[in-house]
Amino acid sequence: MENVVVVGNGIAGTTAATALRDHSYRGRITIIGAETHEPYSRPALSKSALAEAGGFSSHLLPVADHDADVLSGMAAIGLDLANRRLKLSDGSTRDFDGLIIASGIRPRKLRPDLDLELTFRKVEDAQELRTLLRSKPRVAVVGAGVLGMELASACAAAGSRVTVICRSKPMRSTLGDFLADVIVGAARRQGVEIVNPHAVDVRESASELGAREVVLADGSSVLADLVISAIGDVPNIEWLKNSGLLNNGELRVDSRCRLASNVVAAGDVAAIPGEHGHARVPLWTSAIEQAKVAAQALLIGDAAPELDYQQYFWTDQFGLALKACGRLPVKGEPEYIEGAPGAEPTLMRWQNADGSGTAVAINYRMPIPKLRALSRQSPRAAQGRGDLKQQ
């Protein structure tokens, strides 16, 4: 193999290119990147980058050392798999003998046909929101998953009046009721209003010039100056429509991130195998692990390690820095390793029905390897250890 093309210059694409070099690949690498920026930390955009005073740099990553040819502002729009050829948005083509698909996702909108909502995915979105928050607008955040709640936190911290519109309890599907209640309590203490039912539409306000109305399922509405939609995402796979790689509309990879001979996929766009079938796992750490496995699979096939992703989740919102290692969502109440109910810092552990454990730290400084180790041992044994002090 002498000519590898990577579609996507996010963390999955750039990690895959670096992993190729780390495993002694010395051929040509071409990265096709739809954005014009160098790779950056997307998680930082909704966390530290929105809270930065003055500068805008916390999302920046070190310069990659993969020695690849990077075509920025370019997208793949078609794939001829038989002839191993990509069609690009500028009308040109690129041949390959190895292909890594890491084309990512894009946000959903309530009304894609109207320009009434801000979505949040790219550097430009973060820059725009930073500017808009200077006037302290009334903000309606549609969606109460991780991104929606982090954005609500940032808007509240900037002095805006914030309403979160959601189907059910914020963060419940991700974390479970216990941890969701912790976050909801912190949000309400900072003045965030949480309303149901879910949003069905957004429109210009008929009663207030320049304002928007988010229409709810019961016919009521929420008035806001700024509407931010965080209602999920769509994988960027339209360019693969006639490639033969899609399975029931998904890019389903095997345990080594392979799709076909000399074709692999990684990151948010890929549906990876799990105990309940294939699913996309749009998490930063998962994208990195997938990319490393995909690069090795491209080079050495069955000799590559299988994907063994160990779940790790973190979020910063409403003054809570939460880190979790192990299965989520958790059920029931935890055993407290350090701290107590309603107080931070706190270190907790759940024993799951399948025998696994989940360890969660809230405002508790602990290296991830130690938190992961805690998730794997009995809580009573953990309480007796002397190395659980904050780091």
What does this structure look like?
The model has no long low-confidence stretch (mean pLDDT 94). The chain contains ten helices and 25 strands. Helix 1 packs parallel to helix 8. With 391 residues, the chain is an alpha/beta fold. A hairpin with a 2-residue loop joins strand 21 and strand 22. The protein starts with a strand and ends in an 8-residue tail after the last helix. Strands 3-2-1-7-18-17 form a six-stranded mixed beta sheet, covered by helices on one side. The chain has a five-stranded antiparallel beta sheet with strand order 21-22-25-24-23.
Question: Given the structure, what is the number of helices?
Answer: 10
> Mean pLDDT, rounded to whole units?
94
Indicate the low-confidence ranges by residue numbers: none
Strand arrangement across the biggest beta sheet: 3-2-1-7-18-17
Radius of gyration equals: 22 Å
Please give the share of residues in helix. 10-25%
Number of strands: 25
Summing up helix and strand content along with how strands pair, one would put the structural category as: alpha/beta
The CATH superfamily of the largest domain is: FAD/NAD(P)-binding domain
Structural domains: how many: 3
> For the report, how would you describe the main beta sheet?
6 strands, mixed
How big a fraction of the residues is strand? 25-35%
From the spread of the alpha carbons, the general shape counts as globular
CATH-defined topology of the largest domain: FAD/NAD(P)-binding domain
Which CATH C-level class of the largest domain is it?
Alpha Beta
CATH architecture heading of the largest domain: 3-Layer(bba) Sandwich
